[in-house]
Amino acid sequence: MMELASVVQSTAAHSAPAALWAARSLEVATQLRTAIIEGDDTRVARLLSDLLRVRGLTKGQRVRLQSRALMNLMHSLRSAALNDELTGLLNRRGFMQSATRLLDLALRDQQDVHLVYFRLNATDSAGPAATGHDTSIAREVLLRRTGNFLRDLFPSYGVYEVLGRLSSGDFAALTPIAENASRNTIMARAGKPESGAEAAALALQVAIVHFDPASPLAIDELLREACCQLLQAAAHEAAPRQTVVPIASIGSAPRSGLTLA
Question: What is the pLDDT at residue 257?
Answer without folding.
Answer: 38
